[in-house]
Every structure is written in structure tokens, then in C-alpha cells.
């Protein structure tokens, strides 16, 4: 299944069709997943994006939540 079709179908099934996964959002989340997988460990990718999703669901902006996570990832103390 093609990615955009999958995201649209999943959003509809989850009852969140009002959420738009535009190219910027996809890029932000994929970059965040990549960075967390490399800076922490592979399983951190889906878990990090899940936590960022919760922050967004509670009213945060995606770019701000992702930036917070990325800052933590790039800080040596947070990775220890």
C-alpha cells in the first residue's frame, strides 16, 4: 500500500481524519525516528514518536515537540 493512502486510511479508521499528515509532518517524524534510533537504540524510534504524538495530542505543536526531543537526543548527558 502506498504511504499516503495508508496514512489516510489509518487516520479514518482511528477516527482522526481531521489530522493531516503532510510532507512536512512526515519528514519531521521520520527524522525524529532516525535520530532517536541512532542516538539511543532502535526501539527508541517508535517510542519517541509515540511520546511526541501524545504531546501533540495534548495541544503541543509537532515541530516544537520534535525539536525538544531532538535537543535531548543531541545532548550527551541525556543519552547516558
Can you offer a commentary on this structure?
By secondary structure, the chain is mostly helical. The protein has one domain (20-79). 75% of the residues lie in helices and 0% in strands. It is built from five helices and no strands. The longest helix is centred in the middle third of the chain and has 17 residues, at 23-39. The chain is globular and about 40 Å long.
- Total strands: the figure is 0
* Helical/strand content category: mainly alpha
Largest sheet: none
Seen as an oligomer or otherwise, the chain set is single chain
How large is the share of residues in beta strands? Answer: under 5%
Overall structural domain count? 1
Order of helices and strands: HHHHH
Q: What distance separates the N and C termini? A: 38 Å
Low-confidence stretches: none
Overall 3D geometry?
globular
Q: Return the average pLDDT rounded to an integer.
A: 92
Can you give the helix content as a percent range?
over 70%
Our count of helices gives 5
How large, in whole angstroms, is the Cα Rg? 13 Å
Briefly say what this structure is:
With 80 residues, the protein is mainly α. It has helices at 3-14, 23-39, 44-57, 62-74, 76-79.
Features:
80 residues, 75% helix
Topology diagram in text:
Blueprint: H1 3-14, H2 23-39, H3 44-57, H4 62-74, H5 76-79
Helix pairs in contact: 2-3, 2-4, 3-4
Amino acid at each position: 500500500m502506498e504511504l499516503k493512502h495508508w496514512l489516510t486510511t489509518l487516520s479514518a479508521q482511528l477516527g482522526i481524519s481531521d489530522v493531516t499528515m503532510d510532507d512536512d509532518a512526515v519528514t519531521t517524524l521520520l527524522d525524529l525516528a532516525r535520530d532517536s534510533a541512532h542516538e539511543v537504540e532502535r526501539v527508541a524510534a517508535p517510542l519517541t514518536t509515540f511520546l511526541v504524538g501524545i504531546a501533540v495530542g495534548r495541544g503541543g505543536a509537532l515541530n516544537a515537540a520534535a525539536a525538544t526531543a531532538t535537543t535531548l537526543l543531541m545532548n550527551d548527558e541525556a543519552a547516558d
